[in-house]
Amino acid sequence: MGLGILEDRVLEHVPANLSGTTQYFDDPERPQYATDGAHEHLKCDRSGPVPIVLVPQPTDDPNDPLNWPLWRRDLITLVLSITSVFATALGPILAADTVLLVSTLKDVTFVKASLLTGYFLLGCGASAFLFVPSSRIWGKRHLFVLGTILLIVTSIWTAASGNKSYTNFLWSRIFQGVAAAPFESLVNAAVGDLYFVHERGKRMAFTNLAVFGGAFFTPILVGKISNDMGWQWTFWFVAIFSGVCLPAVYLFCPETAYRRDPTPRFSATKKDDDAPQDRGLDQEQEQELKRYPAPSHQTSTDSTTAPKDEEHIHTATEAPASTTGAPTTTTPPKATFLQSLALFNGRKSSDSFWKLTLRPLPLLLHPAFLWACLIQGLLIGWTVFIGVLMAFFFISVPLWWDEVQTGYAYTGAFVGALIGFAIAGGLSDWSARLMTKWNGGVYEPEFRLVLVIPQMVLGCAGLYGFGITLDGMLYGKYHYAVPLTFFGLEVAGMVIGAVAGSLYIVDAYRDIVIEGFTAMIIFKNFFSFALTFKAWPWLIQSSVKAAKIFNALGSVQLVVCLLTIPLYIYGKRLRSFSYRHDILELCRLR
């Protein structure tokens, strides 16, 4: 038993590409160094004093994104991140304008106004069903270009005719959700396409900050714009800035998906059998060694092909090592700039589109993935729920705030998001390294679950405190800054929960991580959509007492966080069972 985690009774070594029991974990700050002859046949980053094994191993194809210069890869990430800010901004863009819409649009109630946000989430979640499998088969470029075009068109649609009818406004919001879906669901996957493991950490943090930070910063600006220029101008600005992003996405963001050679699944052994040799490598590195086994006789010592400014990264012995009589492969020519502008450049997977579309659904019945959906999705849903009710409490008695002040109220949420990122970033790898040390150098993915502790403390405190102090504020007992501070704590817990759930799924169920992330995206969007229906009815049923509602929500969140305890204890056995009884194979979706 490692730090309270029960060992499996069936498998001596739980498979590495499904779970993550290993000597190390994928920590960009702790890469695998090629310090002995065993790794000489692998391509390495030789820019530092000690060569670092490149994971995944790049090919010799100049069109492999891993072979592109670092400045080009960083430019792609920057363009996609900036565009993501405007895409995700459309979600909370009406948060400060609820009362304004009710007072200016014909036959629009508070419930109908909140549903304008709900249907955006519905469009985003529903389109992920199709966009994610499409990206797996045909790549991501066509979806990023399509999404940017839709951002422009739908924003103009809403700005120009949203006030003509509620139905027209509603449909424009649904398609805005469709436009935002590629950026919400695929930008982080593009980072995985573009970088080696030891390069991903800071880039992944940057893209997540663009997606989450932009969403919480938006209402701060929107209130001022709506008050001074009219709510339509918030959409005009999104259309304008998205229009600036479109040529950048089209010209500088080529296809990042690349079809690599499939790697075999790591073999599992029964108890009392010989376990695979532990070479101190993480999961992807073990797979690369399987693909390119160390040569037993004379090998070639030619350097690999690489751009001139990146030769220090790829300089290594040829991999796979050429041997006498071994077949040679022809390196494809480098694609021209015009060729890189094509929206499609070949099929990336031979899997069936409809199988890929349906794969996320069975995972909702898997305990680990259901936990991840709940640990992420509930707090995201509660955040949307708070946003729906904010206007009622702060624009009415006793504050009588306008749209500008209501928008500024989201400053606490934005600061909370930054705090959440700081805590998650500081604790995630540090706690995993510490627990790995305590466990004799053996890493278990369940070590990631300790992040739920700060999530539970901050998230539950935020929910309980927000409801209690919001009621007190109405009677002059608390300053308005107090409930807004608790709102910030709730958002900090939400961010930490999102990181905790994602890290655990990545480390524990790597071979179905894309399907898992798709399931989480669908769950949180559909759950948040459902909450927009119930926000106002629940408030009325509670006699406009926020404490009753948020005490219930806080208790639900507390129970979900406590479910992490059995997952921590039995998680390794669950991983073993999942390997031996593949849910996707049982559903004939492999």
Q: Give the count of helical stretches.
A: 21
- The string of secondary-structure elements, in order, is EEEHHHHHHHEHHHHHHHHHHHHHH
Which geometry do the CA atoms define? globular
Instruction: Please describe the biggest sheet, giving its number of strands, its sense, and whether it closes into a barrel.
Output: 2 strands, antiparallel
Helix content: 55-70%
Rg result: 25 Å
Q: What does the average pLDDT come to?
A: 82
Strand order of the largest sheet: 1-4
Structural class: mainly alpha
Q: Could you give the distance between the termini?
A: 33 Å
Main location: membrane
Region (Disordered): 263-311
Membrane topology: Multi-pass membrane protein
Subcellular location: Membrane
Structural overview:
The protein is globular and about 75 Å long. The strands form 2 sheets. The chain has a two-stranded antiparallel ribbon with strand order 1-4. Helix 3 runs antiparallel to helix 18 (513-541), helix 13 packs antiparallel against helix 17 (481-508) and helix 15 packs parallel to helix 17. It starts with 10 loop residues before the first strand and ends with a helix. With 590 residues, the chain is an all-alpha fold. The protein has helices spanning 70-89, 98-104, 110-138, 141-161, 166-194, 197-229, 232-252, 283-291, 311-314, 337-340, 353-358, 360-363, 367-395, 403-408, 411-438, 452-474, 481-508, 513-541, 546-562, 564-580, 583-586; strands spanning 11-13, 44-45, 52-53, 269-270. Helices cover 62% and strands 2% of the residues. Mean pLDDT is 82; it is low at 263-320 and 322-326.
